[in-house]
Every structure is written in structure tokens, then in C-alpha cells.
């Protein structure tokens, strides 16, 4: 299907078209998703380079190992860096690696770039900024810390909204951690909870230089339009750059759009040229081998069986690629296909809800029970947020029942004593298949914030390899094993009681959380 033809005109600026050679894959397999490469770069890799992680501890230990062995670059994008002992250990690892790099050569080749959100990273007296300033002071030539400030928080609004509440307007929400040519995509932040007992998703793409280059360039592009942290804890914009909340908003957003789309379009062109070159080389090589009756050399790069598509969503800058691709995947999911969709914060956009309720595929939606919601037990108004999510969930479940869709659309609640739940993404099982051939993994929650307010990135991983499909299936099963199916009786439990004021306020504020 040529779904991209409907979507491509919506992208601005226009994406350059490079004619790709015909693909030899079976149209019934991964080929059906190759329309995505008309919107974003396609990275073909071997499935042996993909590793799915399952636990916060595994994620944390991998971060430390990767930092310690990095030689050229460490690039980390997150909402914030926490201030506890585990986070300090990460900073210490960075410091030792930078130190070792300097000692080895006298001048370090290692560059460290960290992108965080300005409002979340500045919260409290001890914060992400104070954690990183020692690195800036000691290694000013090697370390860059960028703090993204949404252009929508400005003027009187910025003066009046207090700390914490100002984070509702818009955030840098991308979570990418890369070390030389190894890339970790996740929904997890750099905070102790995410290293211990806050369940998320994590995938490692090993020895993938093109993917690492893409995300380095993406983080650099956002960093260039962000405030730069200085050694004295002040911030300033790069010379000649429009200020996000003091400068002209339209001009700032246009520059940001241009910088990010340049990264996407140039990578897309590079990959298409590489694809064409590889295709013709492999055709010639195959012809030569068949003439000689020889076997391919072990040194040759194996044919890719897995494809990575980076999906970017930055509505403040007019970039809506992730939204387009997600909507198209939901629209085109066939009868008897199964979609397992998970989010730590169940607050789907109206468009996503309409597609789930109006299309043919089966859905298993995993969400947080109130007790594993990250806001459970919070002080003040934030303590009512789990109840607001219960109310939104109940409304959606009622609509499912009203449309007699209970057999096709299931809600399941994740529950695990002593843990919180933050996993997001989806797994797509084609009709008749017991294994998924596609997963989305990254930062978006499928809610209003992800689509309209924040900067988000995830990847679509499409694979024909059975072993990798099995890894993804086991990841899905492991998460869903800790869940119970939602029924009418779920909302009759005492812990599901929602106060009247929460019901009245939720429709007014649901677009902010």
C-alpha cells in the first residue's frame, strides 16, 4: 500500500524524493511497512545487533558500562538527571572516562553532549544543573549541556506559573542514550527510580554507526536551539540564535523546524543513496559469484533482516511525523491483527481513540493501575492525578462497552507491589502470526502532551528475524503477565472512587498531563 502518498504532502519543508531500487522482500512481510522510508530515513541492520533489555537494573548497569568504554562520543537526551547517589555515580563515570581520555592523548577526542529540559532540570536548589556543573568546569572543551525551553512558556504566563506547574506547558521528553556507535532507545529518564523499581522499556542497537550519527545530529540540532548551561550556573543562547521565550516565537519555531528537518532529510537522502549503492553492488556481486560458482565471503556485510525508522514528533515546531505514522499503522491494521499498546499515562488523543474504536484489529491496551501510577501518593493537587487517570480510563471503557467492542478491545492494568509503571509503545502482530514483526519504542505516551506539547522521539523496529521477534514477544508477555483485565467491577472497587471535583476538573486539564 502507498500510505505515504497521503502523508508526504503534510510534511514541511518538502522531503526530497530519491528513487529507491525495487525491494526484493515479500510484500506480505516487512515490506508492507516500507512506506515509512518515504517520510524518514530507513536503517537496515542485522537483527544480531538488537538487544531487548527487561529491567531497570540491567538498563542502569548498561549505561555505566557504555560510559566507561566510550572513546569518541557520549550523547544523552533525557527529561532530567536526578540528584541521588545512583545518578552521582553516572556523573562520576563520565568524569573518569573524560579524565582517562585526556591522560591517554593529552587532548581528548571524547565529546560529551547532554540535552535536558530546562524547567524540569532546574527544579529545586539541587537539580540536574548543579549535578553537571562540575563536569563543565573541569572539561569545558569536551562537555556541552543544553537545556531546552519550550517557546510556549513565555511572557506573563512564564512569570505567573510556579515551579513544577510550569512543566505542564511543554517539555524536552526525548530519551536517547548513545555511546560511540551503540544506541539505547527508552522511555526511561536518568533518575534512581528508573534504575531500580520503575518499569520501562529499553532496546540496545549495537554497532550501528548510521543510527548513532542520526541521533547525534538530532540532539545537536535541538541543542543548538536550546539554552547552554554555563560554568557559573547561568544560561545563554548560542550566538545569533533566537531566544525561545524572549525572542520572536514564530522565528524561533521556524529555525528549530529547519534545523530538525535538515537532520531528517539529509539522513534520509544518505540512506537512500547507500541503499541504492548496496543494492547494485549486491546484484553485481551475486552475478559474479553465480558465474564463478563461489560462495559469498565471510567478510561481506550480511543482508539486513531488520529495519529501524526514527519517528520524530515536535508539534511546537510543526513536525508531526510520529503522529502520522502511528495513525497510519492503526488505520491499516487488518482484521485479526493484534496490537498490544502500552502507556504509563492513559490519556489517548481523540484521534487515536477513534481509530482504536473504529478499526478492525484486536487491541490489548496495558496501562497503570492507580497504585503503580508515578503520581500515586504525591502531595497536593498532583496526588489527585491517579484518580483523574481512573476517570479517563472509565470513560473510555464505557465507550468500548457502549459500542459492544469488549471482545476486540481489552484494557489491562499493570500491578506490581513496590513498583511504578512507565512503559510505553506498541507491538504489532500480523493476522495469523504468533510473533510481532513491528514494535514502537521510545518516549511518546500516545497522549495529548506527546502529540501537541512535548518534543518526542521513538523508533519503529521492523524485523523478519524470528529470534528478534521472539525477544520482542517475550518483552510484551513479561509486561502483560503483571496485569489484570479491566471489567465493569474494576471501577466498583473502593480505590477507584473518583471525587466529584476531580471529575469536573479533569476535562479542563487533561491536555496538560
From TrEMBL:
Entry's Gene Ontology BP terms: cardiolipin biosynthetic process
Gene Ontology CC annotations of this record: mitochondrion
Reactions mediated catalytically: a CDP-1,2-diacyl-sn-glycerol + sn-glycerol 3-phosphate = a 1,2-diacyl-sn-glycero-3-phospho-(1'-sn-glycero-3'-phosphate) + CMP + H(+)
Extent of the signal sequence: 1-19
Record-annotated PLD phosphodiesterase domain positions: 168-194
SUPFAM superfamilies: Phospholipase D/nuclease
Function summary: Functions in the biosynthesis of the anionic phospholipids phosphatidylglycerol and cardiolipin.
This protein's name: CDP-diacylglycerol--glycerol-3-phosphate 3-phosphatidyltransferase
Claim: RNA-binding is one of the keywords in the record: no
Record localization: Mitochondrion
Keyword terms: ATP-binding, Lipid biosynthesis, Lipid metabolism, Mitochondrion, Nucleotide-binding, Phospholipid biosynthesis, Phospholipid metabolism, Repeat, Signal, Transferase
PROSITE patterns: PLD
GO molecular function terms attached to this record: ATP binding; CDP-diacylglycerol-glycerol-3-phosphate 3-phosphatidyltransferase activity
Protein's gene: Pgs1
Gene3D superfamilies with a match to the protein in the record: Endonuclease Chain A
Known pathway: Phospholipid metabolism; phosphatidylglycerol biosynthesis; phosphatidylglycerol from CDP-diacylglycerol: step 1/2
Principal location listed in the UniProt entry: mitochondrion
